[in-house]
Amino acid sequence: MARVTGAELYTTDISLPRMLHGRILSSPYAHAKIVSIDTSAAEAMGATVLTFADVPKVRYNERIITIPPVLHKDHYVLADKVRRMGEAVAAAAAETEELAERAVRAIRVEYEVLRPVLDPEEAMKPGAPAIYDKVLFGEDEIKIANNVACSRDISVGDAKKAFAEAAVTVEGTFRLPKVYHAQLETKSCVCRPEPDGGLTVWPTTQS
């Protein structure tokens, strides 16, 4: 009942001493290169701003379930190219939520808009816009062809024999949409550095 009425303690209800508030600037384009970022107006307000030039270029994989255990790593925390609408372009931190929001809105970005990839089947055809040029697979950097980072064939039993002996077979193309396990709160995350060098994190979750 507490969750339904809003009485439950949510992530945004957490308040820590000397806490800074952050906001993310998202890309309005599905595919674009970042030509320049002007953070001077945001910094003049007293905010601290991070762009791709300020963070290590470490690639990672966004998936929570790692099956198989070695997956391609294709994401950066911040990069000089955006590959989907809403991808993070810059981050601003300030002493209040209001100031962080004003600061992130003051960041000016110049984009070189690229042709987007809007259909999975079209994306795999020769000549389709390249979303990723290279990704990491384990410790190896591999070049991407036709936007396919990896593929898997899964077979159980003798499929050919089963089809040959079947009284009726049905053939078709089946597609599953992306499913989002939405939490009962807006997206947020609170982090606290610990004296031992660790980090305590309170994120939003499905629960």
Summarize the structure.
With 207 residues, the protein is α+β, with helices and mostly antiparallel strands.
Structure characterization notes:
With 207 residues, the protein is an alpha+beta fold. The protein has a single domain, classed as Aldehyde oxidase/xanthine dehydrogenase, a/b hammerhead (Aldehyde Oxidoreductase, domain 3, Alpha-Beta Complex), CATH 3.90.1170.50. It is built from five helices and eleven strands, in the order αββαββββαβαββαββ. It has helices at residues 2-5, 40-44, 97-106, 120-123, 159-165; strands spanning 21-26, 32-38, 48-50, 72-73, 81-82, 88-94, 108-113, 134-137, 140-143, 189-193, 199-203. The strands form four sheets. A three-stranded antiparallel β-sheet has the order 1-6-3, covered by helices on one side. β10 (189-193) and β11 form a beta hairpin. The mean pLDDT is 89.
Flag low-confidence runs. Answer: none
What is the third-level CATH name, the topology? Aldehyde Oxidoreductase, domain 3
Q: In DSSP terms, counting alpha (H) and pi (I) runs of 4 or more, how many helices? A: 5
Order of helices and strands: HEEHEEEEHEHEEHEE
The CATH class name reads Alpha Beta
Mean pLDDT over the full residue set: 89
Give the helix proportion (percent range). Answer: 10-25%
So, CATH architecture?
Answer: Alpha-Beta Complex
**Major sheet strand order:** 1-6-3
**Total number of beta strands:** 11
Rough outline: globular
- The helix/strand class is alpha+beta
Please give the largest β-sheet.
3 strands, antiparallel
Total discrete domains: 1
Distance between the termini: 14 Å
Query: What is the CATH superfamily?
Result: Aldehyde oxidase/xanthine dehydrogenase, a/b hammerhead
Binned strand content: 15-25%
The rounded Rg comes to 22 Å
